[in-house]
Specification:
Strand order of the largest sheet: 2-3-1-4-5-6
Radius of gyration: 18 Å
Shape: globular
Order of helices and strands: EHHEEHEEHHE
CATH architecture of the largest domain: 2-Layer Sandwich
Strand content: 25-35%
Number of domains: 2
CATH class of the largest domain: Alpha Beta
Largest sheet: 6 strands, antiparallel
Number of helices: 5
Amino acid sequence: MRHEVHVHADIPILEGVSRKQLEQALGPWLEYLDAENMSDVKSLEPNEPGIQYEDKELMLHLCWTGEIGRSFHRALEESLDNLGHYCYEAAEVDLTLYHDSGDQESRLLFVGPTAQAIHEAQRRCMLEDVTALLERQFDKESTAEVLTLVNELFDRQWKERTTEGKQPSERAFEAYTRPSRKNLH
């Protein structure tokens, strides 16, 4: 069964990384799409660039919609894992899967140079989401109380991961499901 998916991210890249290195890292995804290089990746949506590398800004832009099958997720995750070593800092990759029923499923994938960088990007994203949600109803002091607790939870989680040996030392991406948000681009 095929689905439509949208992948969106702005990933900061280390200075000195070449377009060819990025294309090699993205190889599993490019192969899945039967594309020889990033410029061959075309989105179903005409206003989306697909995969673009801005070498002057050192930024890899992913904005692509396409039809996918079962092996897509494995190809994308392998590509992000390869790409992590070239990241300047961790970034979120927003993945939205559109079902035939009209429902959509959103996942955040995090790509970055280290597990700790990814953990901090997850923390930053969570704090932004919680802040946006709470500020609709509560004042800044009440929101700050909850943010303090969220920070403590992230600190505790990191400590548990490192003391229990659960931390993947070379893993360059992680994923979690998030409540659906509409893409506004």
